[in-house]
Each structure stands twice: as structure tokens, then as C-alpha cells.
Amino acid sequence: MGTFSAYTVNQTSRLVSIIYIDNYGTVSERTIRPLRTYKGRNGYTYIEAYCYLRGETRTFRKDHILTWTGQPSQGVSAPARDVPAQPGAITPPLRVPVEKVYKPAEISRMQPAARKEPKAVIPPHGKKAPSGFGIFFRIITAMGFIGGILYGVWNSPGFELPDLLPDKPGEVYDPEPAARVVVKPAEEPAAPVTAAAPAVEEAAPPPPVTVTTYSEYRGFRIKVDTTGSESACTVEDLQISTTSYYVALRGINDLLFREATGMANGELENIYASADKDGSGALSWEEVIKFQSWLAGAYAYRFNEAALWPYQFMIQRGGDCEDWALFTCGLLRYWGWESYVGAFMPPGGYLGHAITLVYSQQEIIGFGSYSIEEHCYLNGRPVKAGCYIPIDYEKVGDISDAMEADWELKELFVPEEIYGRQM
């Protein structure tokens, strides 16, 4: 195994539930049993634990664990949780009073009756004036007639007797007062009643439609449920459920790589996954060229007696020719390419050189290759007919200065068979 700069082992670890965010921003909840923590050469602290979601031992970066539930490992504390705010009160609607409307008042006037001056009674010419008793009788009769008229006027509606006396002492009585105006208030009308319009119920929007599609990737079936702008991806065989199709592909690649190599190293898998620069979920030759160029600038040639596992090559930042070939084969294995380690020897010599050989059924334009026309055996191993494209350090489809074009292919190895072998 690799050499770690520092590590601690927790012998009494318990089951804990964590919420974990990976390098792609995907958040998942897992149940783990912490085994140990160690600090990598990159400065990050890692926790090695058995993951019950995956059913295997996995490595988690400590600063990517959002929360712990249960007994945490040494040096890990659970973050605080936010408390949601309480909703505000609902303000009741205001009631606006209706303005009352009044009709104009009815106005009536009453004019005082004009006074008539009494005229002298002049007996007709040639007739005798009435006697005193006759005059008295006529006066009584006239008074009765006038009294009846006054009684009728007095009891007529709307009549008021004019105020004949001054209101205050010293005021002079005006025998011709102005007409009095009597205003009757109009009856208060009832508030107009407006029939309420029937309530119109808005039709509820139709529920969103979920569209389900299926795709195949490296022998696994991926189910994608799309509702509006949201998607849910499921790989039932691996119990993967995520909102990102790319994360589902990453889970499949991780599993197949671990099964083929026997390695489970998250940092190494991140390096291999990052080679897919366009996020297409597949590796292209152009991306292989960029990866080898980066590798030549980040790692160095270092002599080793035994062939290094790819994660050992990553830790010590380099290796010799077979170590470089094995690290490149690890990239190709992660993305499902078929590759081998080829051992070449000069004519009559004994010091050889190892490179990566990528199998292809036919030649690829722009890339050199070694052709094998029919199935054969090499040192007792079967070799398929086809084209074998070389990758030698930063050279893709070509060889480096470490060997010559006339060197012969002596052996063809399956990469995983020579991990730790003396070369």
C-alpha cells in the first residue's frame, strides 16, 4: 500500500450517518463506520470508512463532510444547523365606509294674508239706513263668518302664527316681517344594494408531466425521469439515485474501475474522471493527448525496482517507464478502453522499454500503430489481431526517444497482472 504522511486509527469506531458533498457538488446521505483518518500529501485530511451505501470501504475528504449524526471519528465535529424563520402574521383587510347620499330638502313658503281696510257702509240712494239692532246683527254674523275662515286657516298644515312681539326689550316691531322658510329634512335613503357578481374560480394548472427515458452505459441501464426542468437519474443495479446524469456515469465508471484493478482511491478516480474535459461522459483521443501532456509536466521519471500501482505512482509523483505505462493504462481502464503494457527490446539487446498499447480493430488516421494481422501467441499469451496504438510518455500515436522504430515487441501484458512485479 502507499506511504501516508500521517494517519490515526480509530479502533472503537461506531456507525455514524453523514451528509457528504463530492467534488461535483452532489450531496448524499450515507451510513459509515470510520476506520481511520490520514493526511495526504496534498494537505487534505481523509477519513477511510466502510460505506453501507456502496457496501465497501471508501475514502472521504474530511472538509466535504457537512454533518455527523451519531458518534463521530476523532477530530470531526458536527456543524451548526440553521433555524428556519417563523412566518409573519396576516394583516386583515380594511373596511371602507360607504358615503351616504341625501336628496334636496323640500322648501315651502307661507305668505301672510294682506290686511284690508274696512270701507264705510253707504246705504243705497233712496233707501233707509238700518236701525241699530240691524247693524249689531250684521256685525255678529260677519264675525262668525270671519271666525270660521280663521279657524280653517289656523288648523291648516304648515301654518305658523307670525311672531308679533319683539324678541328683546327695546326692539321695534316690524308689521311686515319677511316670509319664514320651513325646511323639512329628507328621509335618509337606504344604502344601494349591489348584487355581488358570481365568483369565478380559476382553473388549476395541469400537473407537470413526467417523461421517462432509458439509456445504456457500459452494460448498465440508466433511468431518467424529467419533470419540467428537473431530472432524476437512477441506476437500479448500483442503487444510485441522483439529479445529475454525469454523476450517474461517474458512479458506473468508479465501480467498474475498482472491480478491474482492485483499487478504491477517490483521489486517483478524480484525476481520471477529470480527463473528460467537455463533460460528454466519454473519453476522446484529443482528451488523451491533453492528459498525457499534463502528466509529463506534473510527474517525473523515477527509477523503481517493482512496477507501481497507479495510486503509488500518484503519491510519489512519478516512476520509470512501466510505471508511466501502468498509470496511463489506468486512465484508459477507467473509461472502458482496452489497453496493454508492451515490452520492447532492441535487436540483440537486453535492456528494453515499456509503453502503453491501445487496442483498435482498425487504424486511426493521424496515429501510428503496430499491426497484427491474425491471432497469435506471444510468449505463450494469446494476442488478438488488430492495431495497437502506442502511448509513450507524452507521445500519443508515436514513440519517444527512449526506443527505436526497429525494436521488437517481446511481451504484451494485461496491466493489472504486473502490479508490484519486478521489471
Account of the protein in words:
With 423 residues, this protein is an alpha+beta fold. Among the domains are: 1-75, SH3 type barrels; 208-274, no CATH class; 280-418, C8orf32 fold, CATH 3.10.620. It is 19% helix and 28% strand. It is built from six helices and 22 strands. Strands 1, 2, 3, 4, 5 and 6 form a six-stranded antiparallel β-sheet that branches. Strands 15, 16, 17, 20, 21 and 22 form a six-stranded antiparallel β-sheet that branches. The chain has a four-stranded antiparallel β-sheet with strand order 9-10-11-12, covered by helices on one side. A hairpin with a 5-residue loop joins β3 (27-39) and β4 (45-51). Residues 1-12, 72-113, 161-165 and 167-175 have low confidence and may be disordered.
